[in-house]
Amino acid sequence: xxxxxxxxxxxxxxxxxxxxxxxxxxxxxIMHLMSSKPQALTSIxxxxxxxxxxxxxxxxxxxxxxxLLGFNQYLTEYYKQLADVWGIAQKKVNLKSPEIxxxxxxxxxxxxxxxxxxxxxxxxxxxxxxxxxxxGNLVSKELExxxxxxxxxxxxxxxxxxxxxxxxxEVYKEIHxxxxxxxxxELExxxxxxxxxx
Amino acid sequence: xxxxxxxxxxxxxxxxxxxxxVIEAPKFASAPDEINLEVTPHKxxxxxxxxxxxxxKPIIETKHKTPLLISYALINRYHIxxxxxxKSWVRNLLEQGFEVYMLDWGTPTSMDKYLDFDDYVxxxxxxxxxxxxxxxxIEKISLQGYCTGATIATAYTALHPENVKNYIATAPVIDGxxxxxxMSNLAKHMDVDKMVDIIGNMPxxxxxxxxxxxxxxxxxxxxxxxxxxxxxxxxxxxxxLRVEKWLGDTPPIPGELFKQWIKDIYQKxxxxxxxxxxxxxxxxxxxxxxxxxxxxxxxxxxxxxECSMPLHYxxxxxxxxxxxxxxxxVGMIASSFSQKKVLPEMGKWLAERS
Lengths: 198, 354
Description:
A: 2 domains, 81% helix, B: two-stranded antiparallel ribbon, 42% helix
């Protein structure tokens, strides 16, 4: 079977990322297997746990680069859309008020025209499907970056034998469910008491 | 080309005056942090988790038997309804002889990410209604919802019509597909599952971004130029800073609640189609059969009238009124216009039914 490393004639950024991910995983796995037996004595210490999890950190860091590529693409499009609308709006202002204002009243009038045209054109942009979609994708990529960061933090927390985000979330969920049950019971009791008092 | 001889000396004068105003601004204006937004005296009568039920001390003898509970929005805080003694929604209602309660949703933390519509509707709001019923020895109250607070109040009124005598919906978020605002466009393209899964609660910073794209030049530039130009107008500066402080104080929105709100209202538009479920129960708007008063603003750039008005036509009430005002989202509740027009009309309607 052809190994991943042998088909690394990497043309696209994705292929390059996949290749480096594979190389990184290969060496961390091999190193881990080769060194696990001598490390057995320290198997309850934080460094042992951290070493075992360092592979996860490497994967997250590589994937962050992939996500950053997408993020930059949407960010560029975001600023392009803003810049394009700015240019069009400024042209409209120039057409409507071609002269340089010479007195206070004229400055006020030009300012009003400028604000009205810019507000209209930018609102039209923010209200458009193309802006909504690109902005949605931009936020989505930003969230993926946060997810990778959370995953790295989780590995570090785990290596220090501390609860990670998922475990804390489980506690929050349990507390919420208990509180909900207690609140409903209390409310029912209040209603029942009221009924009986009549 | 512009040359020295053609420059109006008034321009230089204006620039110098404006610069002087900017430098001297701290002399005339308080720092937002120093401003107390608690205008009308009130006490906390019930506290559940982070929510608080506020009771406003009557200013005159109470004239109407049915107390009013206000369900404020999920965005920013309830202070806008009591922002300034001369523009206070709450104070005006007290002056008309109503008993007023307000539900403050508080500031959720990471721990509250699982709070959902059911907790808000059948938990916090229902507990507040029960408290008021017990306190006043009555069977039904009057309920007012503002903005997203009206979405919650609408769900409550449909599920518990036996507890509501009169329902007032002010700029309610109801028909997401008809909403023509920028907020609605952003909401429709949001991967809300991913957002809640990764960051939990909806962070205030994200809300600030959403607000910053609404009339960005009028709100982001012109507003502040006007502020510095009018820095010696004490009344103007006071109101400006109060509203600015209110705008800058928005709590996070609990993740699960936010998720259901975006998906069911903006993306799938379930509420107006009578297909939305809260706590396992279907919200049927036809069950809203009490007296109902809907208020919308034509210039509302946060919740468009097209998004709010369908509620008026969807409910089962025979006694229903729809009022459309020539103002904006905030102008409808915290302005001289609201004091002169919106509140007297609402007060008259409510007084006849309380």
